[in-house]
Amino acid sequence: MEIASGTDIGHKYRENYDVLHVDLEPPLIVVADGMGDGDGSRAAGRTTAEVLVPALRAIRTVTPEALRAAVYETAAAVRAAGARIPGLTGCTLAAIVPTGPTAWIVQLGDSRVYRLREGWLELLTVDHTAAWIGLTHGFLRAGAPDTFRASYQLFRYLGHPANPEPDLLAVELRAGDVLLACTDGISDQLTYQQLVDILGTGTCAEIVARLLAAAEAAGGNDNATAAVLRVS
């Protein structure tokens, strides 16, 4: 596997509240996006990296139960950190945990995982937002102001008081597959065709550089983070 990653602060915030962790051997990708731009956002992302990565590394046999336990442990730590901070403490999560011929995807919130296979780009995750529900069921319209507002209404994230379960997906890895884990600073600013064109050529490092440059060119309206994995 080839892996590369990168993050960019953009122009909206004074800090980068995205958190990125990537290991090459054994491979692991963790992307978290803090909610908001304050102490709670900063603490949620930092806590997620500090707790989730060791918890995933400690799993001897990767199972849905083990992955959920690692996420619940992390969520409890985020809530504990938030108890000392006024306001919201929470973050989204997109993680890729390869295990031989399979990769497990772990996701909460609106950070995403895409797969490019034989020229077809698929979104493998679902946004846990009111906007996604509204667009899927037809009572919201793409581009409408109320849809934009609904995109900030998350009903699942790390730190949520109801401790919601993560989405888990096991996908087969095939030669040539390209997986992208990213925050909404990438997915909200780049079109489907841009993602197809960028993911389809170059090394993983070149792909990440082009993704971040495209997000910057689109306005840099959010922190932007991308991690790309290619199966050789």
Which terms would index this structure?
232 residues, alpha+beta, Phosphatase 2c, domain 1, five-stranded antiparallel sheet, 7 helices, 34% helix, 28% strand
Describe the structure.
Strand 6 and strand 7 form a beta hairpin. Strands 1-10-9-6-7 form a 5-stranded antiparallel sheet. A 5-stranded antiparallel sheet has the order 2-3-4-5-8, covered by helices on one side. Helix 6 runs antiparallel to helix 7. The radius of gyration is 17 Å and the shape is globular. With 232 residues, the chain is of the alpha+beta class. It has a single domain, classed as PPM-type phosphatase domain (Phosphatase 2c, domain 1), CATH 3.60.40.10.
Number of strands: 10
Based on the coordinates given, report the CATH architecture. 4-Layer Sandwich
Q: What is the radius of gyration computed over CA atoms, rounded to a whole number of angstroms? A: 17 Å
- The residue fraction in helices comes out at 25-40%
Q: What is the succession of H and E elements?
A: EEEHHEEEEHHEEHHHE
